[in-house]
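Dear Dr. H.,

I hope your travels went smoothly. While you were away I took the liberty of generating a structure for the chain from your last submission, since the lab meeting agenda had it listed for discussion. I wanted you to have the full record in hand beforehand rather than looking at slides cold. The sequence, exactly as received, is reproduced here:
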Amino acid sequence: MSSTSCWAATAPAPPRRTSSRNGEEIGEVEERHAAQEAALASVGAALPADWRRGRVHRDDLSRFLFAPEDIVVTVGQDGLVANVAKYLAGQPVIGVNPEPGRNPGVLARFDARALGKLLPAVLAGRAATQQRAMAVATLDDGQQLAGLNEIYIGHQTHQSARYVLTTPQGEQERQSSSGVLVGTGTGATGWCASIALSRDLADVLPGPDADELCWFVREAWPSPATGARLTAGRVGAGQRLTLTSESERLVVFADGVETDHLVLAWGQRVSVAAGTRRLSLVVG
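The corresponding predicted structure, in token form, is as follows:
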């Protein structure tokens, strides 16, 4: 038996329904469900018979132990690649897009039918890969959380968060805002991009495989006690952005997964920097 494993990290298929609600077309939902199931079947058929294999649902990723020799195949939207990246340590990831006409395919680039030819190339180290940087948030008590797209720091319900922000250049400002977003080059195509474009700050966004991060303060509120001068910038290699909480409870979560978060109490600090781990994304 080969020592190579291929684990398919899967997103839930769109639910099948038997009746319409608010004019929703059942046919479209069933087509999406069928596309997801067909992609999973193609992935299963493409795996060599002598490889160990397994399948883990997105909700169970935090409890799953990946082996160093694994090849990881995700079947779902681009966000699923981000979800699995934080639990890996350099294993190659092949993103399979079950709905190319609906999903952008920034990270999930491949049709499931291409997997049969792609897997041997990945195993032999011949497939092209990109090393994507990850952002890592570190609390002053040592707790850490990593994200491939972005890390959010703020109030759990996105209400006003109070904190002192310290930039990589050492500038400080006491702020009240709806949170701070620190993104990677991968995240520069998502949440961070929407903020940057609305402020005409596209030049702040790093490239896909850059070691730099970008940061944005969301809706900073100027008042006699708080400012709105430091609201965007870059975090270079070896640098960090730091927030010191002046709220009773702030949260830190990555890639939109609010259930997996760190808690920041009053007076605690969190620093965000580019991590040493990289996502090894198969691109061709």
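Two observations you may find useful: The first helix runs from residue 26 to 46. The two ends are 27 Å apart (CA to CA).

With kind regards,
E. W.
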